[in-house]
Amino acid sequence: MFDFRFYEIWRSEEFISALLSGAFNSFWLSAVGGMLGFCFGLMLAISQDKTVFWGVRYTARSYIEIVRNTPFIVQLFFVAFGLPLLFDYQWSFFASALLAITLNFSAYFAEIVRSGIDTIDKGQLEAAKSLCFSKRQTLFDIILPQALVKVYPSLTSQFVFLFLTTGLVSEISVEDLTWAGRFISDRNFRDFEVFIVLTVIYILLAWLFKLILQGIKRLAFPWSVNK
Fold first, then answer.
1. CA 27, CA 31: separation in Å to the nearest integer?
2. What is the reported pTM?
3. Which of 12, 18, 45, 88 is the most exposed place for a label (fewest CB within 10 A)?
4. Is the pLDDT assigned to residue 1 strictly greater than 70?
């Protein structure tokens, strides 16, 4: 029978510190990347409206298709190693990881938000027009609140799923939770126990994100909570 030795992890302050630091880095990279990705994704979704100039519309659509049809690891390497060569700049790998996560999240969020916008009854748009609402008022006061409420569960699920893929940033030496697991297992050779611990931590972080996102929904859309 396999001899579990979890104490090989807990007895070292260095290992515990690596896990805590990795969990924190994974959390804030996903949280900040998620917020920036949502803002960018919202702009991409709005840019696909038929009233928008066709060049902007097709550029946004092309970007979304490219990101959604390429692996995140390829996008990460392109941002971390390709962009510095193209634009002759040097960022930290943390900054590159955050940018890659933001760009990746934005494409998925944009498609979800766009689908929500498409479900809004056109009669409401005609009513807003008859009441002399401006396009901005119609978008932000009528369309987006309803669309975001409808797709909020999908946005939450997509965010959690994308969060679970961010462990790939360890491939460019970003010290996230997955990196911490590799760091520990390379030193105590207890891979099975280490990745059981990582699994538990990832589950706890996913639950924490879900609780936070539910709280945000209650604050942002209080009128929809009981629906």
1. 6
2. 0.90
3. 88
4. no
Instruction: Indicate whether 29 belongs to any domain.
Output: yes
Alpha-helix residue ranges (DSSP H) falling in the chain? 7-10, 13-47, 54-68, 72-77, 83-87, 93-118, 122-130, 135-137, 144-165, 177-188, 191-220
Under 8 Å CB-to-CB from 28, ≥6 apart: which residues? Answer: none
**pLDDT, tens digit (0-9, with 9 covering 90-100), for 53-106:** 888 999 999 999 999 999 999 999 999 999 998 888 888 899 999 999 999 999
Question: For residues 166 and 30, is the Cβ–Cβ distance under 8 A?
Answer: yes
Q: Has residue 5 been placed in a domain?
A: no
221: helix, coil or strand?
A: coil
Task: Return the CATH number at 83.
Answer: 1.10.3720.10
Q: Is residue 227 part of a domain?
A: no
Domain total in the chain: 1
Domain that holds residue 143: 12-221
Closest CA to 105 of 169, 23, 179, 171: 169
33: in domain? yes
Length of the chain: 227
3-class state of residue 173 by DSSP: coil
Q: How far is the C-alpha of 114 from the C-alpha of 93, rounded, in Å?
A: 32
SS3 state of residue 1 = coil
Three-state DSSP state, 143: helix
